[in-house]
């Protein structure tokens, strides 16, 4: 009986390497297209605006985002008043300032990408409302 020979593998085999998982591919796709960021911005805008028809509101906001992108602009879904209202939610004691930790949490809530890590007031752990609003708008325009 002749010996059977196997053809050489087309690529070297590494027993520890694994093909990319579907989960990894999906995560990469979502990240590349900023889907989590966009969904967070839309969700937060819906919660602030509380429109009668949330689906129509989100469709309109997505169209505004697309149009702004086509013009080479950023679309910020939040007004100064919206951001000031958010600040007041975090300023539970009504003292006119929030902690640096609250600042970062609030920035996440509005979907601000890469906000200033040390805004004015960070050294004393007291971020005033006007600083919060300006930093949020700056970060949102960068998004």
TrEMBL record:
Chain ranges of the EF-hand domain: 78-113
Residue spans of biased composition, Polar residues class: 13-25
GO MF term set: calcium ion binding
Region named Disordered: 1-25
InterPro entries tied to this protein: DD_EFCAB10, EF-hand-dom_pair, EF_EFCAB10_C, EF_hand_dom, EFC10
One of the Pfam families matching this protein, by short name: EF_EFCAB10_C
Compositionally biased intervals (Pro residues): 1-12
Transmembrane segments: none
PROSITE patterns membership: EF_HAND_2 (PS50222)
Domain of life: Eukaryota
The protein, known as: EF-hand calcium-binding domain-containing protein 10
Organism: Rhizophlyctis rosea
Gene: EFCAB10
């Amino acid at each position: 009986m002749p010996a059977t020979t196997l053809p050489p593998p087309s690529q070297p085999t590494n027993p520890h390497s694994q093909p990319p998982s579907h989960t990894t591919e999906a995560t990469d796709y979502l990240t590349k297209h900023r889907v989590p960021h966009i969904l967070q911005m839309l969700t937060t805008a819906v919660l602030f605006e509380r429109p009668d028809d949330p689906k129509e509101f989100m469709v309109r906001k997505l169209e505004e985002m697309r149009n702004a992108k086509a013009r080479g602009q950023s679309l910020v879904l939040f007004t100064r008043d919206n951001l000031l209202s958010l600040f007041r939610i975090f300023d539970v004691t009504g003292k006119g300032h929030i902690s640096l930790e609250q600042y970062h949490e609030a920035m996440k809530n509005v979907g601000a990408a890469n906000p200033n890590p040390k805004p004015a007031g960070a050294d004393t752990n007291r971020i005033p409302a006007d600083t919060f609003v300006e930093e949020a708008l700056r970060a949102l325009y960068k998004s």
